[in-house]
Amino acid sequence: MLRYLVTTFRTPQFDPSVIEAHYAFLDDLREKGQLELAGPFTDKSGGAYLIRAADLEEAKAIAFSDPVHISKSSIVTVYEWNAK
């Protein structure tokens, strides 16, 4: 399994009501053993999380099912990350 850094940056259409669903999404990933780290940026512009996936395609499928992406509340970007 490879690591992927997912960044989420709020859009002008950000809907605060999506936060609860976003956290539930992250909790589900954590329970499945796919989420390593997650947290918001201190400037409240968005956040990031580190997931494990077999390949970039799977990582994007996971990240793009995040409620903040589906609702267009945030721009979600996925990077393969060779963190050590």
CATH architecture: 2-Layer Sandwich
Termini separation (Å)?
14 Å
Helix/strand order, N-terminal first = EHEEHHE
CATH class: Alpha Beta
As a percent range, the share of strand residues is 35-45%
Average residue pLDDT = 97
Largest sheet: 4 strands, antiparallel
**Helix fraction by DSSP (H/I, runs of at least 4):** 25-40%
> What is the domain total for the residues?
1
CATH superfamily: Dimeric alpha+beta barrel
Oligomerization category of the chains in this entry: single chain
Any low-confidence stretches, pLDDT <50, length ≥5? none
Number of helices: 3
Question: What's the total count of β strands?
Answer: 4
Description of the molecule:
It holds the Pfam family YCII. It comes from Halomonas eurihalina. Residues 17-82 form the YCII-related domain. InterPro entries: Dimeric_a/b-barrel (IPR011008), YCII (IPR005545). This protein is α+β, with helices and mostly antiparallel strands. It has a single domain, classed as Dimeric alpha+beta barrel (Alpha-Beta Plaits). Helices cover 30% and strands 36% of the residues. The chain is built from 3 helices and 4 strands. A hairpin with a 5-residue loop joins strand 2 and strand 3. The two termini are 14 Å apart. The mean pLDDT is 97.
